[in-house]
Write a structure and sequence with these properties.
It is a single chain. By secondary structure, the chain is an alpha+beta fold. It folds into 2 domains: 157 residues, Jelly Rolls; 108 residues, Orthogonal Bundle (Arc Repressor Mutant, subunit A), CATH 1.10.10.60. Helices cover 43% and strands 22% of the residues. Strand 6 and strand 7 form a beta hairpin.
């Protein structure tokens, strides 16, 4: 399997890599050995990850979490080249979080029969991922900003382990017909976050009918499209609240046309007003819930 791997950012604890498959046809990789804890966020395409008696079907809307110490192969079944963001954690980081979070007592990290796990993304994970990509593409990236985004991404993913359910496997025909549709839709939502987007506008951009688009978007993402967009906007606002922007500007730049509506929606999501969230008087520790 041919691929291009470009390091976007490197720190003492991890590397963020841009992976792009260069295969022209379906193929299976050679057996490789995974030496590090890693997160693989699929941006486009579809591949099967085979490791230790399990096969995980990976495509947009999923994160592949892999432990160190196992062999694996990858099979790419489709015509669309895979594109992924891979965060590879160095040994020192793994040892640090293993101690801090007591990972040996955690079912995933303690079970030697499980090498990898597939986690379905939510709008918060995807927003953190998008913010991370933007931050790494700056000419002079801010180390602390990237470190913070990575740590928030790790905590959000680990929080999903508590009531873990394997993502529903979608039919191959559905993925072949509509993976690109969902990828285009998510990118359009991200690029037009502050605009008043209609269902018809989004469906037209993706070249499907509004009714059909609503159905397939929920099948792939697990969210109705309006709720997915609202969650993205609230997550974007939470990130902006770490800047000096006034709350009114945060609301409008996040796609809300009413500050009152934004404040009510934000408080419902985070159990605290935007102002208190910014001031740090109350913080949501979702991982410890």
């Amino acid at each position: 399997m041919e691929a291009s791997v470009h390091i976007l950012f490197s720190s003492a604890y991890y590397e963020i890599c841009d992976f792009k498959c260069l295969c022209q046809e379906c193929s299976k990789s050679k057996t490789e050995y995974n030496e590090h804890l890693s997160l693989c966020i699929t941006r486009s395409g579809n591949f099967y990850y085979n490791a230790f008696r399990s096969t995980l079907d990976t495509y947009t809307g999923s994160v592949l979490i892999s432990k160190p110490g196992y062999d694996y192969t990858i099979y790419h079944p489709g015509e669309i080249p895979d594109e992924c963001t891979i965060i590879v954690f160095k040994k020192t980081f793994y040892e640090d979080i293993e101690e801090q979070l007591q990972l040996r007592a955690h079912w995933f990290f303690a079970d030697k029969d499980i090498q990898s796990l597939l986690v379905k993304t939510n709008p918060q994970i995807e927003q953190l991922h998008n913010a991370l990509l933007l931050a790494t593409r700056e000419n002079n990236p801010y180390n602390l900003e990237i470190d913070t985004l990575v740590m928030e991404l790790v905590e959000e993913l680990l929080s999903r382990f508590t009531n873990y359910e394997m993502p529903q496997q979608l039919p191959a025909r559905l993925k072949k017909q509509h993976l690109v549709t969902i990828e285009k839709a998510k990118q359009y939502l991200h690029d037009n976050l502050s605009k008043n987007i209609s269902l018809n506008e989004l469906a037209t951009h993706c070249c499907v009918s509004p009714f059909h688009f609503s159905r397939i978007f929920k099948l792939f993402s697990g969210y109705p499209v309006h709720l997915y967009l609202q969650q993205m906007r609230l997550n974007h606002a939470a990130l902006l609240l770490s800047t000096a922007l006034p709350v009114t500007d945060v609301a409008f730049q996040s796609g809300f046309n009413s500050v009152d509506y934004f404040s009510a929606a934000f408080k419902k999501q985070y159990n605290v007003s935007p102002t208190l969230f910014r001031n740090g008087k109350e913080k949501i520790a979702r991982f410890h819930k």
